[in-house]
Amino acid sequence: MRKPPDRVRAPVSPRAPLKPIDLSKLKTYPLSRRQSKVRLAHFSLPWQRGGTFKKFLETFPDILAVKTLRAVVQAIVRAHRKGRPVIVGMGAHPTKVGLNPILVDLMERGIVTAVAMNGAVIIHDFELALMGHTSEDVEAEIDSGRFGMAEETGRMLNEAIARGAKEGQGIGEAIGHYINRYKGQFPHRTISLLATGARLGIPITVHVALGTDIIHMHPSADGAAIGAASLLDFRRLAAVVAGMEGGVYLNLGSAVILPEVFLKTVTLGRNLGHPLTDITTVNMDFLPHYRPTTNVVKRPTQKGGRASLGRSLDIALRQRIWFHEATMARPSPALPSVEQLQALWRELNGRYFRGALSSIEIVWSSRLTSSAGMFVSRVGPRARVGDGADSSYGRRLIRLSSPLLQRLSEDAERAEREIIGTLAHEMIHQWQFDVLKRRPNHGPDFSHKMAAMNRDGLGITIWHWFDEAVRAFATHAWQCRRCGKVYERQRRTIRPSRHRCGICKGALRKISPSEVIDQSSTVERPRSPAHTAATRRTAPSVQLEFEFASSLFFPLTSRSERPG
User: pLDDT digit string (tens) for 7-19?
Assistant: First the structure.
């Protein structure tokens, strides 16, 4: 078979260079006429010793999550004053982290008018009322088959449900009356949501998925009774939701069951003639999930009402309280302790990295003066665990500059913002190293992660403006012979024979620190767009750095200007 002749391509003439857009006719307007979303009136205020908690809340900036938090509070207050329902739908976590006394207080004061819960809540609520403790160690018991086999929990809860079903009671009402009936066996019943609801006549509804709770494993479990009582609770919750015009529904920590249940109660109410166009729905959870976002926040209010995606409502409060605990616990101008930094690291790791980051040492460094923070590793990101890339201390750590950040401790607002932002910045570098297996940099994955975290108001940046503080500590300086970039250091860490300028790769020369201010305004610099952009990125701010201690990775660049 003959080979077909090669096709001859016509010559391609070069295209004319693309001209940049002409900006000569660009229309601008005075800044005073522009609508701005952030104003000084919205800013936070420093905390004053001896103030009330109300005053403490008033110091929060009226921006983003705090603005949402205040809107939710106002909606609850408005509903309470008008006698409209305030319904709490919850998973087990609020009970497990100790919020029962607060919810009980809100029920007794008539603010919370109904509580809907999944099947896990009744177990923890019951065990707390009975024994004063709950939440078994699943990992320790699952291998032996002992998980969920506490005798009293299975026997007594199933007995209460079966008895209540025969008397036409829902699960919540049945267990609440059971606890109050045998009050001698429940010395801690005052913190029980179920007992409080039964005592006050507040609807407490329980919504069960058969097979998901430990009591379903016990021989005393009656599927017919559980199903009938839970269905009755569903219809009672539907009756409450049908009358919640002007009311509020808060979803606390339920990712699946309660969002699905709430959506069905809303459609039932509207089907039966209740418009439900003036309702407020709020989702508050540690992490965002599909069902709460869709079935609580979006769909029920698309016809009318207000919705708040409150996944970031608590982080503003957590950060504010954390920082003030750290700084108020010791005389000013102390910095947060390493233990407090580790606690913040664990919270940020769980919230934004889903626990994927390995444990790491965090230290205050008195020698780090060229940047606010630095992620350090003495091995590469792809090194095997046996080579030392595991989580053991000594190989990897996050360093925070005590000289630079100490100077901010008198300014509580800025210190809080800088310390949290700096730690979060270095955690993104740790994420690049631990999870992405890349050398830390400030490329697209860093920017995307930073933007996602900043949606909660963390205020992470790539550059921190500590130029005056850095100059105060600098005793050595070098200048690029080509572009004039100046590098200041506390120690003699730059070798002109080995290092090059991080901007233009030019040679460096040693100068006196006293020459820096005099020469910075007279340096002749190239005017190319690329150089101008690079210079604008690097001067005079201090970059939050990452460092591989082995100089093999960056043999030709100085430390603060390494790639990324």
Answer: 667 777 777 888 8
